[in-house]
Amino acid sequence: MVTKLISFSLCLLAFLFFAYNGLAQSRDTLIGAVYVNKSLYKDREVLPDVYGKPNPRLQKSLTQVKGNLYRHTNDTIPSLHSGLVLITKAGAIVIDPALTPAAIWLNDEIKKRFKVPVKYVILTHAHYDHAGGSQIFQQNGAKVIIQKNGLEPIIGEKLPIAMPDIVYDKQLTIKLGGETVILHHIAPSHSNSMSIVSFPAYKALQLTDVGQSNTMPYNDFLDFYYDGWIETLDWVLQQDVDYIDIGHYTPATKETIKNERDYMVDLHQQVLNLVRQGQSWDQLYRNVKFSDKVKSWYGFATMSKLNILGMHRWVTNHRRGVW
Ligand SMILES: [Zn+2]
């Protein structure tokens, strides 16, 4: 009787152990997540979504990078927008829908091709051109994630995008269907809500709007933090990665990131030196020198003077001298 009781107890324990483990494996794990009390914002005002309608003529793609990692692209706005997509047996993770027409298509495409729902949408930062369309995925059951500083501009600027479900501070790890994705907030760089997303098993990174691939940084460095930008690029250069999607154009490599870092540091130093020499803007912008390599980058003709302007603004806002 005692033996029977012992073996019954052992069986029960074994059952509970395996049942618990099975449950733990099937459940997604989010480490570092903070859940947003969305009831506080349910009546928030939003501006019209100017790209709200489906676009049958949209040029778009969802192509394999390696294994379960894919890249989506679309041309809703003339400059191509992109983001990585991870397909797991427990659902998909999408980075930056990049506006509503693309989101409508991508949500259906993932369901049709891979027979899994989109579980998480990661917004790399709170800018409309990348975060737009997140509401389409949320309406279909996905949870939307952004670094915590992204909530203020989404609400304050009345962005017509999803109100995020989940935020984090420095790091968030998502474990889903046997895959791992890590969101890193290194520093303010391009906006103060920037997430760099790593896929360790694929040596891949999402570095939207901060990374460049023989391309000029956009215009006058909108929503720019110079120190944090360099800190972020230095962090990227220390990572073991060989595929870096930058949210536009073609993906970067560590070599193009290094060249971009050198360009930014050189531009900053030149502008600082010229300002310290007492040069006015009208003199200064004519005296900044660009290397032949930088002159060959995509967008040089349109972006170079605007880049000087953005750096001049940063430099003059961050020095004092004698007064
Ligand atoms: Zn941006």
UniProtKB/TrEMBL annotation:
Q: Where is the Metallo-beta-lactamase domain?
A: 80-248
Q: What is this protein called?
A: MBL fold metallo-hydrolase
Q: Give the species.
A: Pontibacter flavimaris
Give the Gene Ontology MF terms in alphabetical order: hydrolase activity
Which keywords has UniProt assigned to this entry? Hydrolase, Signal
InterPro entries from the entry?
Answer: Metallo-B-lactamas, NDM-1-like, RibonucZ/Hydroxyglut_hydro
Q: Which residues form the signal peptide?
A: 1-19
Q: Which SMART domains match?
A: Lactamase_B
